[in-house]
Structures are given as C-alpha cells and as structure tokens.
Amino acid sequence: xxxxxxxSRYLVKRTGEKVFLECVQDMDHENMFWYRQDPGxxxxxxxxxxDVKMKEKGDIPEGYSVSREKKExxxxxxxxxxTNQTSMYLCASSARERGSKxxxxxxxxxxxxxx
Amino acid sequence: AQKITQTQPGMxxxxxxxxxxxxxxxxxxxxxGLFWYKQPSSGEMIFLIYQGSYDQQNxxxxxxxxNFQKARKSANLVISASQLGDSAMYFCAxxxxxxxxxxxxxxxxxxxxx
Lengths: 115, 114
What we know:
The structure holds two protein chains of two kinds. By secondary structure, chain A is mainly beta. Chain A has strands spanning 4-6, 10-13, 19-25, 31-38, 42-51, 54-57, 64-70, 73-78, 87-94, 105-106, 110-114. Chain A is built from no helices and eleven strands. Chain B has strands at 3-5, 10-14, 19-21, 24-26, 32-39, 46-52, 60-61, 64-69, 74-79, 88-96, 103-104, 108-113. In chain B, strands 2, 5, 6, 10, 11 and 12 form a six-stranded mixed beta sheet that branches. In chain B, a hairpin with a 2-residue loop joins strand 7 and strand 8. The radius of gyration of chain B is 14 Å and the shape is globular.
C-alpha cells in the first residue's frame, strides 16, 4: 500500500512565524503535490514537484515556497504565516504515468490554525 | 482551465440504498481522466475509482460505479448498498493526460442514515 505521511495533524502558529509542513512518501513516486482545502472551494494546488529539486507553481503559490531535496520528502514552507493561511493542507504523491491512470495518493492532512 | 462542478453540497441516504453523486466538467480537450475520492471526517483523501476519456465501458470498483456520459460531460458516482461508513465528503476530479495537475470539484457531503 502507498503510504504518505505528514509531520503534524494539527498545528497552531502565530502571525509572522515561519512554518514548515513536511510530507514523506514511501513508494518511490516521482511526483509530489501540496494542496490546501477550504470549505466550498475543494482542493487547490499550491505547488508540485516532478523530480528532486524540481518544482512548479500551482494555482495559488503566493505566500508559499517548497523544497524537495530528496525524492521521498516534499516540504511546504510558509515564510511568514498569515491568518488567511489557516486551512487544511494535504500532501499527495503519484508515479509518473502520463497518459494513463496516474493516481494521486494523499496523506492524512495537516490542519493549520494561524492566530 | 477545466472546471469541475458538483451541484449537490449535501445528501442524505438510507442505509442499504443506492446514491448517485453528480459531477460535470467543462473541457474541449478529448484526453483526460476522471477520478473520485472519498474524504471521511479524519481528513485523508481516499481514491475510489477512475475513468479514462477513451474507456469504452463504465468503471466499477466493488460498490462504486461511474456513470460516464462523455457527450454530456458528466461522470456521476453511484454507491450501491450504502453503509454507515460511506458517510463522508466525496470529490470529483479531472486530469488531462498531458498534465500533472488534478483539478477538483467543491465536493458533496453524504450522510448515511441507519
């Protein structure tokens, strides 16, 4: 079974703090993704990475950065947390199978509250 | 960008009955895949079923089936013989074959009543 883990289930931070969300997958997947989920908006892609040290912006990258130094680990960084970044953050990974059933597998999510 | 629409914010279904969750999408690209995910209250997104745009038959996975109507651009999920454990939020998503990006609908909450 694919296993995607996230470092924290719940996190409370203060405005202006630097926040690190870590994600690890154990299936040797090339692709990794960070989403945020807000009520009524579904999931929105923040960043994704298709290889080590490679990254691409998603739909809402503003206020976020990412790091992928190792294939199994993908970190989301909030350089200076703001209250509008209070949300559920979901990490996902997938094997590179373009043109077919490339399925993303998700971690349990991190609920971040910024005060 | 493709748009995924789930018009039912919430639904109630009686245990052991079937329920259909609507999903429509808007794209002119002929090559895409459609996915359904389940999100229980614990938060994890669980992959349920996949349908490719060139697949001739509707996908089925156990109690889940996908009613794919390509001309109408709809990909409704049918859950048969509902169980209490089916209570969750369900998301429809789409990905083009030549892209990594998965685009999601807003979700439908299903509550199964005993």
